[in-house]
Design brief:
mainly alpha; Serine Threonine Protein Phosphatase 5, Tetratricopeptide repeat; 7 helices; about 0% strand
Amino acid sequence: MSSEQNDRPSKGGHKFDSNADVGLNQLLLIEATRPLTPAELLTKGRYIQLSSTGESTLADAEQAFLKALELDAEYVPALLELGWYYHAVEDRASHALTLFEKAYHLVLGQLREAIKGRAECTEELRKDNSVDFDNLMRIACRELARH
């Protein structure tokens, strides 16, 4: 494949990638022996979008994302990927919005759990005089500032 083909943008705004071809072929071999997991289906869909062979279509990528969600309707990475597919490739913003909203609410629930757990652990550590709580808070603030 020429370098010109490898740098050509695809419909989804991605560049074609020969590494995606290798990865896609590996997943197809695995799929011939057993069903793919939601994470593998997500990767398959991404590889299809980046593939330079033309053997798979963007509709095949959509099907991979849909199959991942069929196996796990709350798989946030697949909701996001399918949302971007509908938004950027299919130009179906209202359909994409539904997927982004579902992902948002799922992640928001997980974030609430993380905040609650962090608060409970922080309070417990604050009560434990053997823990240098101020140092833990400085470390946490530095970590937050880096992100």
